[in-house]
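INPUT
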Amino acid sequence: MISDNEFILYQIIENIARLSLFIPVFLYFYKKQNKEVWVLFYLLAFIFIHQIIYGSLLKRGSDFVEIFNSFYTPVEFLITSLYIRTLLRGSLSKTLLLTSIILYFICWIPLFSFSKAQDYISYIRAFSYSLILIFSLLYYYEQIRNPKTIFVYMQKSFWIVSGFFLFASGTFFIFLFDQFSSNVTGFFDQYVYIHALLFIVRNFFFSTAMIIKPEKSSFSDENSFLLV
Amino acid sequence: MFFLQVPNSNNTTYVVYFGTFGMLLLAVGLIVFIVFHQRKVIYYQLRMRNMQADHQRLLLQASLSSQEEERQKIAADLHDDAGPLLATVRLYLNENLIHQDQATQLQSIYNAKQIVDDTIQLIRNISHSLIPPTLKNFGLESAMTDLIQKINGTGSINGSCRFHDYKRRLKLEQELSVFRILQELVNNILKHSNSSFLHVTQNKTDDYFYLRIHHDGDGLTQTEYEKLRDTPHGLGLKNIHSRIRILNGKIFYEKDSTNTYYKVTLELPIEALQ
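OUTPUT
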């Protein structure tokens, strides 16, 4: 059981994490942004709206909370994957990514229909984040094989993908073991701390992406076997 | 998720902590690696591009020098040969000719006609050096045979030329490029190799068009060729290289394993010659 003090502490941590969402959103409007980050804006807006609706449904004790929450990860996965797809240049990589998205949703239907709510959230998140990790690696691979700029960290996309990558790798284990959260004492602590911390780190990366000015010089070497 | 049957509290806590820590460590390590490795790749590519640009510059310089040389040669021929000849014709046909007796007039006109004939021949020679008429009218095989016959005529070297499979002619500009390459190679052999024989052969496979020159004098190996080509003096070799590049071809300088002769092979992809 969680004591009242602990509950308040978790609330504070979670609210700090939620508030960190405002930084990249604020920077999106404050700094004139190019097309590269518009998907990110939609993702942040989606997370923000989800948090508000989820919070209000939870307060009301609505029966739709679980169903509503079960759509969060697939939508987040879809936006993230489509964003990474816009960054990839090789047609083979793009096709691979698109096939993975289709396969993901084919797997999602039975998972959504037949799993228990707690198991479903755990499986779908672990599955989504493993795919996002693979997509991010694909993006990094292309950056090495066919660099566009002298300094990779001068690209907005690098910071955005790194944000996804760090968040996905850091939260992978807590989402994977989320199905046992009711049996394991202390798991909820871990979940809240790790998730909130990585959520803030991800928003910090997104904010950096909003701030940096992309480098003008470009490179293109069409030798990569993925660029076919 | 059959492998995740871990309801043991302590184990799960450790697995989650260490798993998360390990994953984060790997992720950060990978990002750092990418930042540094990507920079290395970029510097390497930049160096390669600079080298290619230098090489292109050298080739362009060689091509310009070659053009200038050709122009100077034509200018010298016109100035030193055609100029005096036409001036002499003018002297023969000057205004005083009308006051001369008929025999002198006829003699002057005959002399002028002779000189005009010489001038015509001279201009024809200049024109032939720009594009050999044999090449234009009869193709590469005839032009090479003609060249080898001329070389044989000097008596200093024994040359032969054999085209095994040249039923369909290449385009004129391609034939001219190949001819210029062979001409330069033959010229180099005559100038530097002290060889007693020179043998030009042509062959074809499904994918490649081959031209080979064998000779028994002092020749070059591939390394020596590449080294010489990249020096500021190797103008002829640079021209050969740039012409081969235009044809998407390759050139190989080899020494026979018996050390009796040298072989230069020109390999041109059929696809590029269509």
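end of record. The longest helix of chain A spans residues 117-145.
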